[in-house]
Design brief:
By secondary structure, the chain is mainly β. It is built from two helices and twelve strands. The protein is elongated, with a radius of gyration of 22 Å.
Length: 201
């Protein structure tokens, strides 16, 4: 899609139409769904970037716009956390999140949604895909003779062998990749686990 006006790709062999609109500027104060209504025939899907129930300039979308859209399912981007499957009127919608967390502002499991959509029914299953997971762990160091040992003891499932240098983080909580690397992964899940430790004394 190359336009902020919703356009369609028709897939007659699947009995559906996929609508989408491009986010064409750094900011967009108008709802990408305002005034839009999909045709009634076939399954009607859409993929859009925007914020539901927000007032702002990242494509604010009201639940009223979703309900009036005539869509069977609306896949949304912008929020990098799975929203759960929601419904406005007859339209199901969700933020699947992102497939891979990129920093400590994107915690927990990340993945995609596996959907089955037909008129009047949408089923969604969250499928975790991330190979690394960001977590925040609080460790109480009160009375600990060896704070480093207490921190390591709080990380029983994370193997930190092969770390070189100091791990430092930028202002958003992302590990600065040139400062360290970890050769081993979480031995239980096979995922890379980056952990920010907050200590309390």
């Amino acid at each position: 899609m190359a336009s902020a006006v919703p356009g369609a790709v028709r897939l007659p062999e699947l009995g559906c139409t996929v609508w989408g609109a491009a986010f064409c500027a750094p900011r967009q104060s108008a709802s990408p769904l305002r005034g839009f209504h999909a045709p009634a025939e076939g399954v009607q899907l859409a993929v859009l970037h925007g914020e539901v129930a927000a007032q702002g300039d990242y494509g604010p979308i009201s639940e009223e716009d979703i309900a009036a859209s005539g869509l069977d399912y609306l896949a949304l981007g912008h929020v990098h956390q799975y929203s759960g499957l929601r419904r406005a009127g007859e339209t199901f919608w969700a933020y699947p999140g992102c497939p891979e967390g990129r920093g400590f502002d994107e915690l927990g499991e990340k993945g995609v949604l596996w959907l089955e959509v037909e008129k009047g029914r949408t089923e969604a299953e969250f499928v975790p895909l991330c190979r690394r997971r960001y977590q925040i762990l609080s460790v109480d160091l009160t009375g600990q003779a060896d704070p480093a040992a207490a921190v390591l003891a709080a990380l029983p499932s994370v193997k930190l062998t092969g770390v070189t240098g100091e791990i430092t983080f930028d202002e958003t909580g992302d590990a600065i990749r040139d400062s360290a690397y970890i050769k081993s992964v979480n031995t239980e899940t096979g995922a890379w686990d980056f952990v920010a430790v907050q200590t309390v004394e």
